[in-house]
Amino acid sequence: MSENTIQCPCGQPIHDYTDYLLLYLKKDSDEGGEIDILCRNDYCYLRELGYLKFTIDKARKVTLEKGKFYAPYVTWNATRMSEARTVEILKIHLVDITEKLVQWEKVIRGIDKEKKALSSEEATA
Ligand SMILES: [Zn+2]
Questions:
Q1: What are 35's strand-pairing partners?
Q2: C-alpha 11 to ligand 1 mean position (Å)
Q3: Residue 72 belongs to some domain of the structure
Q4: Is 12 a member of any domain?
Q5: How many angstroms does the Cα of residue 57 sit away from the middle of ligand 1?
Q6: Fewer Cβ within 10 Å of end Cβ, the chain: N or C?
Q7: Which domain holds residue 72?
Q8: CA–centroid distance, residue 72 to ligand 1 (Å)
C-alpha cells in the first residue's frame, strides 16, 4: 500500500473521486438537500465518509453550502501520511466529487419531481 494512497479506515483504497459512492438524501424543505459520500466497500463499518449540503434556487441553480469529510476518515489518513498531505488530497477529492461525480441534473430533476408530487397531493386534498 502506497503511503500516498488515501484509504478508508476499513482498508478500502481510495485513489480518486471514482472510488466513492453517493447517496442522495431527500429533505423536507424544497430548496435543497444533502448528499452522503460513502465508502465503496459493502462491509465497511464506517460507511459514511463525508457529505455535501446544497441549495437549489428558483432558477434551478445549485449552490454548494458545505462539503466535508468526517473526522475519523481524515484522522485515519493524517496519521498514515501527513495531515497537510491528507487535507490537500481530500480537498481535491471533494472538488472532483462535486464537479465530476454528482449528477446535478438528476438531483435537480428528482427535486422537481417531488415538488410536483407534493403539489398534486395538495390539489386533491
Ligand atoms: Zn470503508
A1: 24, 52
A2: 6
A3: yes
A4: no
A5: 34
A6: C
A7: 19-124
A8: 11
Distance 110 CA to ligand 1 centre (A): 28
CA 42 to centroid of ligand 1, rounded, Å: 8
Residue 53 in domain: yes
CA of 123 to the centre of ligand 1 (A): 45
- Distance set, CA 101 to CA 3, 28, 38, 46, 68 (Å): 25, 24, 12, 21, 15
- Model pTM score: 0.85
φ, ψ for residue 46, nearest 5 deg: -90, -45
Residue pLDDT, tens place only, 64-104: 999 999 999 999 999 999 999 999 999 999 999 999 999 99
What's the domain count of the chain?
1
Q: Is residue 26 part of a domain?
A: yes
